[in-house]
Every structure is written in C-alpha cells, then in structure tokens.
# Entry
Amino acid sequence: MFLNLAHTKLDVFQQSRKPTLECYRITKAFPSDEKYAMVQQIRRAALSVHLNIAEGCSRRSVAERRRYFEIARGSVIEVDTAFDIAEQLQYVKLKSIEHLGALIISCFKQLTGMMSTRNE
# Structure
C-alpha cells in the first residue's frame, strides 16, 4: 500500500485482491454459528493468496518465489474446496458465487503460469 513495490503492478497480485474481497463479502451472509469456523478459514485462505504473492515477489531466489506461489495456489484450492462445502450446506447458491468461481480459476491459472516460468 505505502511501499509501491514492483509486485503491486503485477496482474496476478492485482487480480488476487478481487477474490479476497469477494470472499469477505460473501461470507458476511453465512450463518452466525460459522463465524469462527468456516468464515474465518475462508477469509484466512483468501487473504493468504494475496499475501503469499506479495511475499513471494520479495524473495531473491527463484526457488523461494516459487514456494510462496505454490502456497498461494494451495490457498486458492482451499477457498474453492471450502465454497464447495458451503454450497452443499446451502450457505450459498452456486449461481450467486459464479463470479467468485471465475476469479478463483483465473488466479489459479495465473499462479500456475508463474510457477512454471523459468525466468521469474
């Protein structure tokens, strides 16, 4: 926010903010008994994507960067899986989270591409 570093200009970093904010918005409507369970888990995982991209970009070695991007991608999968359970529990309707699904897919693809790039 204040540092204005190079990673803030990366498309994957800018795009990872969108599903994070969307997860916070959607989980506001979850049942109150999930406040300290599924809601917090989804929010932590979504935020983890964004934060691990930022931290990975600050690492000097390619191996370290890839590891952070791998962790971020794992968190994308975690968010996707949590929403599958939330949909099965009828906390959300699939139709209402299609936009989030598109954001998740996009972020997953971008991170996969970054992990396979030789010259990061």
